[in-house]
Design goal:
A hairpin with a 3-residue loop joins strand 1 and strand 2. The longest helix is centred in the first third of the chain and has 12 residues. The protein has three helices and six strands.
Length: 94
């Protein structure tokens, strides 16, 4: 399991996820975003609505039920680049 940081135009959250997800974070996030548009669960009258917690739910419930991803902590505002202490940790903003 490896650390990643996710956000949805909000505070960054540090998560522990399966190695393959951390090593290919953008790929997994983009596939998730594509999947969301085909899933009625995320439909609203204005389009679709989802965030980084929905991505973690997808990892845990569908893709990696035997390697449960976990929230470690909120790391505060991170919009363009993670703060110095988090450099090198894969980051994605939904």
């Amino acid at each position: 399991m490896k650390e990643i940081i996710l956000s949805a135009d909000s505070d960054g959250v540090l998560f522990l996820v399966p190695d393959v997800v951390a090593e290919n974070l953008a790929e997994y996030c983009l596939k998730f975003c594509d999947w969301v548009y085909t899933n009625p669960k995320f439909e609203t009258k204005d389009g679709v609505c989802y965030n980084h917690y929905d991505f973690i739910d997808c990892l845990n419930e569908i893709l990696f039920p035997n390697e449960i991803s976990k929230e470690i902590k909120n790391v505060g505002p991170i919009f363009k680049e993670p703060r110095a202490q988090y450099q090198g940790i894969p980051y994605y903003n939904f």
